[in-house]
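Ligand-bound model needed. protoporphyrin IX containing FE.
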Amino acid sequence: MPNPVEPEPEAPHLDFQGTTPYEDYIQADVLTHLQHPLSDDPGEMAFLVTTQVMELWFTVIVHEWHTASEALRRDDLPTALAALRRSCYELSALNASWEPLAHLTPREFNSYRAALGEGSGFQSAMYRRMEFLLGEKSASMLVPHRGAPRVHDELEKALHEPSLYDEVLAYLARCGEDIPREVLDRDRALRYEPDPSVEAVWQRVYSEGDPLTELGEALTEVAELVWRWRNDHLAATRRAMGAKTGTGGSAGVSWLEKRARKQVFPELWTARSHV
Ligand code: HEM
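Prediction:
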């Protein structure tokens, strides 16, 4: 009989003092004990884990967009492009994680819907950090987090910081593009509003095949993948609950339809009509 702790040559190590180095780095034991379904329905676990998985992707994507913003501030375009590219792969993985929730019948969703109480993804602070980085600022989105000082402080900081798009426009201005002063000096805590001069800059970049097209395309990819997330969310919601009101108190699908119509980086889309 072989000794069970005597590994075969070339097999992975089995013998560790304390926890495994994998556990020390990944904290899988912490991560896999954060699931506490509140109903007896076996489908609730998939809802809980999918939502947690999405929160993790939101966290990585926020990290990438911070990296890109900081790189642009230093005029380091290659580092910014690499972070934006990674964020696109992560957004694709985020969007693929809709699958377990994309086919729920209303009866299936009803079996654990009560467990959510008034809980809704609307209250996701990390999703708001993503929106703020896209330029979709809104002070009212801080209100649900008044009772959680750390989350509130992080969101408040993010509200006043320049968005990723603000950093892109400042970078374009430093590259000699004609970005108006009032756009560069805008109140960062307000939602970004499209500007005709910014549209004209993207129009020139795309018409002339300027190297800045690469930056424009990386941002366009981000914008499209965010739009896809919103539409997949809308479709899953429509299937799971029809026109009922949301657990967060909104009108539900009709409210989400309006939200899904928002354009991320608006001038990158409108400029295309003039190229
Ligand atoms: C079948 C599953 C789902 C249904 C039926 C659903 C339904 C809804 C509804 C009705 C709203 C509007 C606010 C409200 O009244 O609650 C909403 C908002 C939201 N949900 Fe979901 N949701 C689902 C899954 C998810 C998942 C897995 C996430 C991932 C975190 C998520 C994230 C969000 C976010 C971020 C918002 C706010 C959107 C915005 O502000 O534009 N939802 N959801």
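Residues 41-109+121-274 form a domain with the Methane Monooxygenase Hydroxylase; Chain G, domain 1 fold (CATH 1.20.58.480).
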